[in-house]
Amino acid sequence: MTPERGRKERSGMQKDSLRQQWTTSALSTVIKLSNIIGFLPINLTQTLSTVVEEIYNLYHPQICCIYMIGENKGLEPVFFKTSDGTNPDLHINSTIEACVALRDCLAYIACAETVCPNRKISDDKSLSHVCIPMATGSDIHGVLSVTFKPERVLDQDELNVLLSITNQAAAAIHRDRLFEKLRNEKAEIERAYQKISILNEMLKKKLEELEDTQQRLIQSEKLAATGVLSAGLCHEINNPISIILNRIECLKMEADELALPAGVLKDLDVIYSNAAKVSSIVQDLLIFSRHHPVKLEYADIRPLIKRVVDVLYEDLRRNNCSVHINIPPSIPAIHGDTDRLEQVFINLISNAIDAMPEGGNIYIDAVVSDERQGFLELSIRDEGEGISEENLHRIFDPFFTTKKLGKGSGLGLSICYGIIKSHGGEIRVKSRVNNGSVFTVFLPVKKDNNTAEN
User: Fold this and answer.
1) What letter does residue 120 receive in the DSSP assignment?
2) Residues 66-82, buried b or exposed e (16+ Cβ, 10 A)?
3) Which of 365, 362, 302 is nearest to 334 (CA)?
4) Which of 160, 189, 312, 424 lies at 20 to 30 Å from 446 by C-alpha?
5) pLDDT digits (tens, 9 = 90+) for 394-451
6) Which of 313, 404, 421 is nearest to 362 (CA)?
7) DSSP string, 432-445
8) CA distance 416 to 180
9) At what angle do helices 156-253 and 44-59 cross, to 10 degrees?
10) Short-list 377, 394, 373, CA closest to 301
C-alpha cells in the first residue's frame, strides 16, 4: 500500500467517524426535541429557545434565528443565537410577501453564488443561508433562518435533519395555539356556566316570588269570599243570639220570683256562657267581614308596642313569659292606623303566649327593611311549640287554628292578615316544630322631606 493510499484511507475513515458522530448527535437532538414537545402543556418559550440552542450546537452556524409572524403580519425575531452575540438584522423587508420561503411555502437555500434577495449583505461578503417555513397545514407560523460561512454547504442529510427540527418547532407552535384556544374556550364555557348559574338562581328566586304572590292571591280570594259569606251570616245569627242572652239575663233576675230551682239556674249559666262564645265569634266575623277604611297617621312604633305589652301584662305574668323589646330609637315612624295595628300585635303576642304553655321568652325586633325599600320589618319570635309544615301555608286561612278546641275561633290571624294588607304591608311566618315561630310584619314608614319632594 502506497503512503498516499494509506493517507486517503485514514482520511476516509476519519470522515466516516465524524459523519457517524454527527448522525448520532442529530438523532439525539431530534429525540430530545420530540420528548420536549411531547409534554403537555407546552412551554413554548422554553421549547423554541431549546430548538435554537440545539441547532446551533449541532450545525455551528453564524446565525440561527426563529422568526414568527407578529400582530402586524410581519416577521419578528423571537429567538436567536449568533457567533458574535449581536442581535441579527438580516432582512431588508420584514413583510411576509418579501420572504421567498413564506411566499412559496418551500425551504429556500442560498449559497455564495445565489444570495437571498431579501437578505442584508454587508462588505460584499456572501453567506450560505437556509430559510425554512414553519407551517402546519394551511397555518403558517414563521420561519427558521440559519446562516453559515460561505464555504459551508449542507448535504442532503443535514438538510433533512434541519427540516425535521423545523417541523417539530412548527408542531410545538401549533399545539401551543391549540391549547391556548382550548383554554380560552374553557374559560368562555366557565363564564357561560357562571352566567347560567346566576340566571338559574334568578329564575328560582322569581319562581319563589311568583309562588308567594300566588299564595297571597289565593289567601286574598279566600278572605274576600269568607268575608262576603260572614257578613250575611252575622246579621242572621247576631239578632237571635242577642235575644237569647237578654232572655237569660231576665230569667236570672226573676229567678226568686219564679222560684227557679238551682239546677235550672246552673243550666242557664251554661247556656249563657256558650251563647256568649257564639256572640264573640260573631263579633270577630263582623270585624273580619267589614271593610273599615284605615285611618293612616304617623306614629312611633316603640310606644305602640309598649302599650300592647302593658295590655297583656297579666297574661304574660300568669303564663311565666318574658318580653324582650329591641327597637332602636333611630327607627323611623310608621304610617298606619294605630288602633288596628294594636289589634294585630295583641293577637300575635297572645298567640306567642299560647304557644309556650310552660313559659318562655318573646323577642320583638324592628329594623328598616333591606328587602322592601320604604318599609319597616317588625318581628315577633317565640320559643314555643312551632307549626308543622303541612299547617304553615294554612295559618292565615279563616277558621283555621292549631289551638285546642274552645281556645280560639281561627279568625285572629286572618284579621291580622287583612289589617296589614289594608296598610299596603305584608305579614310572613317562619316556623319549625319545637323550635318556635317568627311572625314578620312589613309596614310603610314615614318618608323624609327629600324623599317626599322627589
Assistant:
1) -
2) bbbbeeeebbebbbbbe
3) 302
4) 312
5) 777 766 566 554 455 556 787 788 888 888 899 999 998 888 999 999 999 976 544 3
6) 313
7) -TTS-EEEEEEEEB
8) 63
9) 170
10) 377
